[in-house]
Amino acid sequence: MSSAEQRTAVWDAPLRLFHWALVGLIGFSWWSGEQGLGWMSAHMLAGQAILALVAFRVLWGLLGTRHARFADFLAGPRRVLVDLRGLLRGRPEPHTGHGPVGGWMVVAILALVALQASSGLFASDDIFTEGPLAGRVSGETSDFLTWAHHVLFDALLWVVGLHVAAVVLFYPLVARTNLIAPMITGRKRLSAPSGSAGGFGWRVGVRALILLGLCAAAVYGGVSWAG
């Protein structure tokens, strides 16, 4: 770290815990889905936990700390193209939080995860296993959502693979930027920080726990009631 750089607080603890919890749950969902009937109950619970996490991230994108908010990193096509051009040339625009390209990647992953997990609620193999809400829709609709559940997971694998390749290979080698360490420590090395996210005290944790609890209650309560 050069003398001009500062370690700046960017990612709050709730956001970082969300990130790694989602990584773990997606991995577990894939693994448990491959293990057969004995793991289907755990697979479905993991899917509902994923939905609760995604709902939390959406609310945290509105009510969280500065750089967790969608308003901080979502941008229009012109800014996205400028950001992408800089990345491809190896001269990325400096961003304290997510840049426009990374921000839309976050949205794409959240959308795919939400759709994939939601479709699983209605999926059925017509023999042994069905999602908790499969009985609430017609057989044709359940068949379509079962197909979508598998196709969306394949699409999610491609998008996640692209994300991992960008974080592990492109950004360190081409853009000379480390994105992994800040998602662990919450701090980035910045030469000219535009201000930290701030407010990383206990109130942030309490707010996050309340939101996560509400999201979990809404998902599990809604599925139990509808099922």
From TrEMBL:
Membrane topology classification: Multi-pass membrane protein
Protein's cellular compartments: Cell membrane
Residue ranges constituting the Cytochrome b561 bacterial/Ni-hydrogenase domain according to the UniProt record: 10-186
Main location: membrane
Keywords: Cell membrane, Membrane, Transmembrane, Transmembrane helix
InterPro entries the UniProt entry points to: Cyt_b561_bac/Ni-Hgenase, Di-haem_cyt_TM, Hydrogenase_cytochrome
Transmembrane segments: 17-33, 39-60, 101-123, 155-179, 200-223
Superkingdom of this protein's organism: Bacteria
One Pfam entry name: Ni_hydr_CYTB
Gene3D superfamilies for the chain: Transmembrane di-heme cytochromes, Chain C (1.20.950.20)
UniProt keyword Isomerase present: no
Designated name of the protein: Cytochrome b/b6 domain-containing protein
